[in-house]
Design a protein that fits this description.
Helix content is 30%, strand content 19%. By secondary structure, it is of the alpha+beta class. α6 links the parallel β3 and β4. Keywords: ATP-binding, Kinase, Nucleotide-binding, Stress response, Transferase.
């Protein structure tokens, strides 16, 4: 691969990137112009090294450190300049706008941050996005074929990734809006959730827009979005413990392989690899740290990250409904672009092991365009929630108030995918529509009863005065 001529396909000239520029010398017209966003703090030293490699290869002005510049500010500036040049008759700017692609290197939170910005900005020509795995889970990159392991940062590896970006196909992905509201306490802290503990994609309304009609007086209102999953309960609790421990002891969590194996610990697969890992770290307290987190949170070493489709970058808890399920309950396979949420329940941690059986899945509760949760006063004063790998500790009502969580379809953005893409599109004729061999024995006896008892605690049971069939 001839580096200089190849790299010229991606380079954007200064006059496109600098505000107020006049129509400049066109020069070589890039076939695949890119803007690169790197979280320099992700992946240990890898983030900084990757940032430097991209800046050495491309125009440094088209490579941004997310620790220094927010993506919304960057994209507003670049697109404002493109629009200005386009109005001046700059055909070069018009071509750049049409062909522009984004690359984001970071964890799932970083990737979701950029996806949310692109969706919120409502750009005239929204660019498709490629994700570089540079975190612990790397679920979004894995789902679209970009791999799960953190990349090497040398020039050859970056050129290879750019070559994949040039050849990648576009696939739409649904964006889900989450709205959470709780009554402001009469005494005590004004912030029920510390701002630093919030996911990138979840924001307090009063910090976003005081004029927003959904920012109710006397309430704390939060809004945000997610792309892969929203979960509550045991998996979010373990994830929160993991993230909290990593903040307190970052030196114990520098190895991506170990971080991932914490979630995969003692699965039916990878036994030889895990034995090797145990031997390697036997003389340290790293494994003790991970095992303690898993056991103490009640997850009984059940893995959270897997190796297949959508949930947490791994196994598909919805499965592929057979023909009878599609007919009787109007269920469909889990597509990333159908505007439907798959709502799945697990009775307890052991129930989660069903995912490792052939064609195993959780209890299918419903598919819906939107869903609303209401939490009332109970035995617990908090629960744990997680969106796209980012957990937080959610306070619950202590009196007669209600915590409300509403999830609804917001829109779509375009992702770039490789030939190894695991995500399925409803518009792809090769995507499976049914699985005739599926075993649904766990649901066949009495679906209504199964839906009502899926939660491990009384607070998660569906009241008997609610018809489960109307939940979708």
């Amino acid at each position: 691969m001839a580096s200089s001529s190849f790299i010229s396909n991606f380079i954007i000239p200064d006059h496109i990137l600098v505000p107020g520029s006049l129509v400049g010398n066109k020069g070589h017209e890039p076939e695949c112009p890119v803007l690169v966003f790197v979280n320099s703090k992700s992946g240990g030293q890898l983030g900084g090294d990757l940032l430097q490699t991209y800046r050495n290869l491309l125009n440094p002005k088209q490579v941004f450190d997310l620790g220094e510049q927010a993506p919304d500010e960057v994209l507003r500036t670049v697109y404002a300049n493109l629009e200005s040049l386009n109005r001046q008759g700059d055909q070069f700017a018009k071509t750049i706008m049409k062909k522009l692609k984004l690359i984001v290197a970071g964890g799932d939170g970083t990737a979701g941050w950029l996806l949310g910005v692109v969706c919120d900005l409502k750009l005239s020509h929204p660019p498709p996005i490629a994700t570089v795995p540079l975190g612990t889970g790397n679920n979004l990159p894995f789902a679209f074929g970009w791999g799960k392991k953190n990349p090497t940062t040398d020039q050859g590896s970056v050129e290879s990734f750019l070559n994949q970006v040039m050849k990648a196909k576009e696939i739409k992905i649904d964006n889900w809006h989450i709205l959470m509201r709780m009554r402001a306490p009469k005494v005590g802290s004004c912030d029920p959730i510390p701002p630093l503990e919030l996911p990138h994609s979840l924001h307090a309304f009063h910090r976003v827009s005081e004029a927003d009609e959904l920012n109710m007086e006397g309430c704390h209102t939060f809004r945000g979005g997610f792309w892969n999953y929203f979960s509550m309960g045991m998996d979010a609790q373990v994830s929160y413990a993991f993230h909290s421990e990593r903040k307190k002891n970052p030196e114990k969590f520098k190895n991506q392989l170990v971080n991932q194996y914490f979630f995969d610990f003692l699965t039916l697969e990878r036994k030889e690899e895990i034995c090797t890992l145990v031997q390697k770290f036997l003389k340290t307290d790293i494994l003790t740290t991970y095992a303690k987190l898993g056991c103490s949170q009640g997850w009984f070493l059940t893995p959270l990250l897997h190796r297949a489709d959508s949930f947490s970058g791994g196994l598909n808890p919805w499965g592929t409904p057979n023909r009878r399920k599609q007919s009787d309950r109007d269920l469909t396979p889990p597509f990333v672009d159908d505007g439907l949420l798959e709502i799945v329940g697990f009775r307890n941690a052991w129930h989660g092991l069903v995912l490792y059986a052939p064609k195993g899945h959780g209890t299918r509760l419903a598919q819906a365009h939107r869903i609303r949760f209401e939490f009332r006063k109970g035995a617990a004063d908090h629960t744990f929630m997680r969106i796209d790998g980012e957990p937080w500790k959610q306070p619950l009502p202590v009196d007669d108030d209600t915590v409300v969580v509403e999830i609804s379809h917001l829109g779509q953005v375009s992702m770039l995918s490789t030939g190894d893409c695991k995500s399925k599109s409803m518009y792809d004729p090769l995507s499976p529509r049914q699985d005739v061999e599926e075993d649904d024995s766990d649901e066949d006896a009495s679906p209504s009863e199964e839906f009502r008892k899926f939660g491990a605690a009384d607070t998660f049971k569906i009241p008997y005065d609610i018809d489960p069939s109307r939940l979708s």
